[in-house]
Amino acid sequence: MKKNPVNKSSINGIEALTGIYRKTLIYNDNLMLCHFFLEKNSEVPLHSHKEHQIGYVIKGKLNFFTEDGEFMAEEGDSYVFESNEKHGAKILEDSEVIDVFSPSREDYK
User: Fold this and answer.
1) Given pLDDT bands bounded at 50, 70 and 90, which one contains residue 3?
2) What was the pLDDT predicted at 1?
3) Domain of 75: which CATH number?
4) I need a surface site. Which of 70, 77, 95, 105 has the fewest CB within 10 A?
């Protein structure tokens, strides 16, 4: 999918998990850009995937956890998870984040 430009308002979101909404914005074979809206008190369980993940918190507050510990991320913060690194999150406030995956996630197309 390569269609320039892509506006998030033109993409139908899906509820990936309870209270977790994803819009896959644009991607090619190497990169994928996704917008997430996460409701307060929702959770992303500990999981892993082969794709590297880099994210940016547009607004809100999340508590991320990995097998090695945890960290807080809020508006203006960015984060990275390596390929196959287990990670999850507890959503402490209604939040919006942008995530980039490399390579693109087949399950998000």
Assistant:
1) confident
2) 60
3) 2.60.120.10
4) 70
Domain count, the chain: 1
Q: How many CB atoms lie within 10 A of CB 1?
A: 11
Cα(30)–Cα(77) distance, integer angstroms: 24
Predicted model pTM = 0.94
Mean pLDDT on 53-63: 98
Secondary-structure breakdown of the chain: helix, strand, coil percentages, each rounded to the nearest 5: 5, 55, 40
The boundaries of the domain holding residue 52 are: 15-108
User: Which of 25, 48, 10 is CA-nearest to residue 108?
Assistant: 25
